[in-house]
Amino acid sequence: MKTVLTESPIEAAEFIERGGIVAFPTETVYGLGANVFDEQAIAKVFEAKRRPNDNPLIAHVGEIEQIKLLVSEISETAKKFIEAFFPAPLTLVLPKSVNVPLIATANLQTIGVRMPKNNFALEFLKACRTPVVAPSANLSGKPSPTTWQAVFEDLDGKIDCILQGAPTEIGLESTVLDCTAETPLVLRAGAVTLEELQKVEPRTKLYQLLKNENPKSPGLKHRHYSPRAQVVLQSSEFKVQSSKSSAFIGLNEPKVKFDLVKICATVDEYAHSIFEFFRQCDREKIEIIHCETVKERGIGLALMDRLKRAAEN
Ligand code: TXA
Ligand code: MG
Fold first, then answer.
1. Is the CB of 291 under 6 A from ligand 1?
2. Which candidate in 5, 142, 244, 254 could, as Cys together with 238 as Cys, close a disulfide (CB 3.0–4.6 Å)?
3. What is the mean pLDDT of the chain?
4. Ligand in nearest proximity to the CA of 32
5. What is the DSSP letter of 139?
6. Are 143 and 289 in contact (CB under 8 A)?
7. Tens-digit pLDDT profile for residues 134-181
8. pTM beyond cutoff 0.90
9. Distance 144 CA to ligand 2 centre (A)
């Protein structure tokens, strides 16, 4: 398949209307989109990414009005979150409408809904004239793409079109918030922080996966965010050194030498840079990546979540 590269949201949207699959930028990471009501197009998304078919997709809307097309009900709590945050790097899990095909939600009766906070993404979504399901536009298991070039690296020849936008602003995927029970649960930490959510609904909690329990968010059990290199987490004491080619990313200048070093001025910049840094390490054949740990609050909670997952593999 020839993958068309375009800077035109209108041209990219035409592929969606014709049943194609299109990578597009959002404020978090690039997504790989398909019309939410087109089962065949959604099947192509799973195939192109080699995504396990038990992992549900998030539906993206260009206008608040479109949420109604996707869900059977919006609770008062969910309404408060929509009013306080949308458009935002926040996905709300709500009961799905019967019109949404089960392939989109991996057979769940719920659907994740979000409205991206990025004008280029919104322009594209409005032009699609339908909600668009989109997982991150990477091969399953690889770091999420924060540039169109990273999408190209993984999916050239496997998808219809890449909408070429700027590198994404945030660099980590959206916060996933389950709003189907009394207590809103953060299933995946992201740029909308637990602290901010609790200001709107104080009962909001972080979901803790219990041993032997089936995760509420199927994505939680899948291998994730991994570069080929081994990832090691450490505090700012850098005693470890080995003969392997190694890289470092963190907030403080390391005292020992690495082959590749990235110092970030803030935790936001660290979050913004991590996935592209992982990809750069793979391109440069780095064998071990040392990542400095940060405090688990604000965006630091989301960053540490991704770092821990990368280190697990
Ligand atoms: O920022 C983002 O969310 C990006 C951009 C493209 O919007 N998308 C993204 O999608 O990260 P994906 O598919 O890579 O991650 C979606 C996560 C998965 O962990 C999935 O299991 C969870 O959201 N999820 C989706 N629908 C769900 C549902 N109905 N119930 C529970 N978890 C759900
Ligand atoms: Mg993903």
1. no
2. 254
3. 94
4. 1
5. -
6. no
7. 999 999 999 999 999 999 999 999 999 999 999 999 999 999 999 999
8. yes
9. 6
C-beta separation of 135 from 176 below 8 A: no
User: 58: Cβ below 6 Å to ligand 1?
Assistant: yes
Whole-angstrom Cα distance, residue 183 to residue 23? Answer: 34
Q: What angle in degrees, to the nearest 10, is found between the helix axes of 119-128 and 9-17? A: 40
The answer to whether the CB of 26 is under 6 A from ligand 1 is: yes
Would the CB of 134 count as within 6 Å of ligand 1?
A: yes
C-beta of 137 in contact with ligand 1 (< 6 A): no
Q: Please calculate the CA angle 23-14-18 and round it to the nearest 5 degrees.
A: 95
Residue 218 · residue 106 · CB < 8 Å = yes
Strand order in the sheet with 4-6: 4-6, 161-163, 22-24, 31-35, 132-133, 58-60, 110-114, 90-95, 175-178, 185-188, 205-206
Q: Is residue 136 within 8 Å of residue 51, measured between CB atoms? A: no
Ligand 1 pocket test target in 26, 217, 305 with most atoms within 8 Å of CB: 217
